[in-house]
Design goal:
eight-stranded mixed beta sheet, EC 3.4.11.2, Neutral Protease, domain 2, Immunoglobulin-like, alpha+beta, single chain
């Protein structure tokens, strides 16, 4: 009897396993790249190489052609499933091992059946017409941007990050154009391809994930710089000599970042070259393609007399992208649910790399200011997500990106480094890079390595920080001579966040700093105060800025915190208190009027450039989210813009003034400045400032809008900036039918290809002063979000939602968003979260 039971159980297990395998195989052919397909291919195909050839015409309207040879090894015959998001008409030839073979093109996959393969090495050759989506074609240049899953829109491939491959690229292109790719140029043939044409052949790359493959071709100026035997080239299209003169500084900061990471990691730069291309209208700040790193021109070429914020921002961007060469390119995540493991290191190390470049800056304050407010901006919302998110298919990988992975994760990593200690952290990171060199890793693999360097259970410590969304609500009170600090999970899950918190209690002239250490067991802790006083004590939370959470205040507590802020000599404390006060404003525990008045009293007293900038931003945020009569704020900002002793402070105050200006007096003042091109009080306004001023004036002065736009366009010499302005300007038209036409055009993917321009146009259409007229755009723009995500790059869904909704504060706008969700109860969760994050101010 037992024997037959055992046989029956084995048979049942076999049937279940067979059924599971069939279900897994059924998911191979889903659009995108399913986790099941990725696992199958990773286990089946090795030693993958791509040989790519593209024919690039000079005219943007002409068709671009491509071909690819994909070579790989198999131990046993398996079906070949290549990713290619194309239609049958884009396919020209499909060969296997030199012979035409039958294939299917279905749901973004080319499939060749297993019986056509041979064991060992095979080569699939495909000739095709690529889609324009990832080619980013302009009149005189193009560039590829394939992160996270867009390589399959450019050429047939195994488009998953854990199948690292080598690439050899050839470009047939106009002779006057330059070309840059991941590897150095092997040779150029300027003779064999007819008049005005040439062939550029690049060397083979190191092992790279598909999203890191890239090339740029077009009319560029090249600047080359050397330091200690290492050369880098900067390619750009800038025509302003004052901006071009910044290239040596940019190159120097690249060299500095490379040297810093080599010293920290103990690993020489692991790729053949580092060149960078500065692109007009680039949709990211930067993108870390090895050997061909892309940068946004406005982030790199700064206007005359840039603010400290702008200079720090450029330096941090360079350090971020350079850090990716080790963290992301050399060692890459296995799947895009762990994409944050490259972004966390890039941002964390960026903050450290910039330190020696700015010896006069309080870098602890800069870290707090850079990351915590941005993390809170999403983590406080109904659209909050964990740092590590579930991802079943790479077609949704772009939705993983956001402030949580870029800004919350460095805060968590800094906590982790304090748990480990600096030297243990450094040794653990070096072991991690050695272990996974030119390969793929997971967060769990990293934690397993770091765990060896500390008695702390890092996996348990990090679980709530990495795998759960949201933050604790933290309150503090005094009773019986003790400070009571309580931590609560506002989402009702009963979670506890282990962290060290520092409070300062002020009573009269006395003050005491108190450390509170939350573990994973107690949600409330008490500490005895060393002094007692009859005066009402003021509790200042998180004064070192190292804690993370909503430090809840009451309206009655706020005046004491504001007074302590103004009296404090500690810059980090002031920054942390500013953040706490603003978060309480956003949570509506303190009043907008009180916040606005207190901030205007504080701003003239602040001499730290980082704090002044942060405070100005919070003041603008208060006016945007809780709009009030702008005239008192206009008058206060104009005083700051014309009387503060520091020119950069005046310039920032003027920029906020121009963005919130609403009264006839303020608009008249801005018009005079724009007409005369004379900034107030020794401020220096660049071309971008005047372009933005013209948009504001055209919106507020409809009777002069056409004249203003025509004049501003005539002032612009650079062809790329002229193209940008010509695209955006119709969005400020005084004619409703024109604006409606612009909006309808933005619903067509082809008109959104230059994403920063499309976002600016949508933001102008949804300007706060036209809220009543633009509410009608909300529903159709939200309906377009799936198409925006499918056809756009990783940050565009968020940028689209922000441009659409940030100018709205009305009940009608809130009702439109609520009605949209009511009509779409099954709307994709990750995409819905982007909308919830950007509509949080409407709640």
């Amino acid at each position: 009897m037992k024997k037959w039971k055992w046989i029956g159980l084995c048979a049942l297990a076999g049937l279940l396993a067979c059924g599971s395998a069939e279900r897994e195989e059924a998911r191979w052919m889903e659009p995108g790249v399913s986790r099941e397909l990725a696992r199958f291919r990773k286990a089946s195909f090795t030693d993958v190489r791509y040989r790519l050839y593209f024919v690039i015409p000079e005219a943007r309207e002409e068709t671009l052609y491509g071909s690819v040879e994909v070579t790989f090894r198999v131990e046993r015959k398996q079906p070949v499933i290549l990713d290619f998001r194309a239609e049958e008409r884009q396919m020209r030839v499909v060969n296997l091992n030199g012979v035409a073979v039958p294939y299917t093109l279905e749901d973004e996959h080319i499939r060749i059946e297993a019986d056509l393969l041979k064991e060992g090495e095979n080569t699939v050759e495909v000739s095709f017409t690529p889609a324009d989506q990832s080619l980013n074609r302009r009149d005189e240049f193009l560039y590829t941007l394939l992160v996270p899953d867009r390589a399959r829109t450019l050429f047939p491939c195994f488009d998953q990050p854990d199948m690292k491959s080598r690439y050899t690229l050839s470009l047939e292109m106009p002779k006057a154009w330059q070309a840059v790719s991941n590897a150095a140029v092997e040779y150029e043939d300027t003779i064999s391809f007819g008049a005005g044409r040439k062939l550029v052949v690049f060397r083979e790359t190191e092992p790279l994930s598909t999203y890191l493959f890239s090339f740029v071709a077009g009319r560029f100026t090249r600047e080359t710089y050397e330091r200690e035997g290492r050369a880098i080239s900067i390619y750009h299209r800038e025509s302003d000599p004052r901006k071009v003169a910044q290239c040596p500084d940019i190159a120097a900061e690249v060299f500095d970042a490379l040297e810093w990471q080599e010293a920290f990691t103990g690993i020489p730069y692991p790729f053949a070259k580092y060149d960078l291309i500065i692109l007009p209208g680039f949709q990211f700040g930067g993108m870390e393609h090895t050997g061909a790193t892309l940068y946004n021109d406005r982030r790199m070429f700064l206007d005359e007399r840039p603010t400290l914020n702008e200079r720090l921002g450029r330096s941090a961007l360079i350090a971020h992208e350079t850090s990716h060469m080790w963290f992301g390119d050399y060692v890459t995540m296995e799947w895009f649910d762990d994409v944050w493991t490259k972004e966390v290191f890039a941002n964390y190390f960026a903050s450290r790399i910039v330190e020696p470049l700015y010896p006069g800056v309080n870098h602890r304050l800069n870290f707090v200011r850079d990351y915590i407010p941005a993390a809170y901006a999403e983590d406080r919302t109904a659209g909050a997500n964990p740092i590590k998110q579930d991802l079943d298919n790479l077609r949704n990988a772009g939705l993983v990106y956001g402030n949580i992975i870029y800004d919350k994760s460095p805060v968590v990593l800094e906590m982790l480094t304090r748990v480990l200690g600096e030297e243990a952290f450094r040794q653990g990171i070096r072991e991690y890079l050695r272990t996974y060199a030119y390969g793929n890793a997971t967060w769990e693999g990293l934690i397993a390595i770091l765990d060896k360097y500390t008695p702390e259970d890092l996996a348990a410590w990090s679980d709530v920080w990495v795998n759960e969304e949201g933050m604790p609500e933290i309150t503090a009170s005094i009773a019986g001579g003790e400070l009571l600090v309580e931590q609560r999970d506002p989402l009702g899950r009963g979670l506890l966040w282990p962290q060290e918190l520092t409070y300062r209690v002020v009573s009269g002239t006395d003050s005491e700093e108190i450390s509170i250490s939350f573990g994973r067991e107690l949600n409330s802790l008490r500490k005895k105060l060393r002094f007692s006083s009859n005066e009402n004590p003021v509790i200042l939370p998180n004064v070192d800025g190292r804690g993370y959470g909503f430090f809840k205040l009451s309206e009655a507590e706020a005046p004491g915190v504001w007074a302590a802020l103004r009296a404090s000599n500690d810059e980090v404390e002031r920054g942390s208190l500013l953040i706490t006060l603003y978060e309480n404003l956003r949570r509506k525990t303190i009043s907008p009027a009180g916040f606005r008045d207190a901030m205007l009293a504080y701003l003239p007293t602040e001499r730290n450039a980082l704090l002044f900038s942060m405070a100005l931003g919070y003041l603008g945020g208060c006016q945007r989210v809780f709009p009030a009569d702008a005239r008192p704020l206009e008058r206060a900002l104009w005083r700051l813009a014309t009387t503060l002793p520091e020119p950069p402070f005046r310039q920032q105050a003027f920029r906020l003034y121009s963005s919130i200006a609403d009264s006839d007096e303020a608009i008249g003042r801005l018009l005079a400045i724009w007409e005369r091109r004379e900034a107030p009080a020794d401020c220096v306004l660049g071309e971008n400032d005047y372009m933005n001023l013209s948009y504001t004036l055209a919106i507020h002065l409809p009777e002069r809008a056409d004249e203003i736009v025509a004049e501003q366009l005539a002032r612009i010499d650079n062809p790329d900036r002229r193209a940008e302005y010509a695209f955006i300007a119709p969005s400020v038209s005084p004619r409703v039918e024109t604006r409606d036409s612009v909006f309808q055009s933005l619903l067509v993917a082809a008109n959104r290809r230059v994403e920063p321009w499309a976002s600016s146009a949508l933001a102008n259409l949804s300007h706060r002063s036209r809220e009543r007229e633009s509410v009608k755009y909300i529903r159709p723009a939200l309906e377009a979000m799936p198409d925006v995500q499918r056809t756009g790059d990783i940050f565009f869904p968020t940028a689209w939602a922000r441009a659409l909704l940030s100018g709205h504060t009305s009940a009608e706008a809130r009702a439109e968003v609520e009605a949209f969700f009511a009509a779409h109860p099954d709307f994709p969760v990750m995409l819905a979260n982007k909308i919830k994050q950007q509509s949080d101010h409407l709640r």
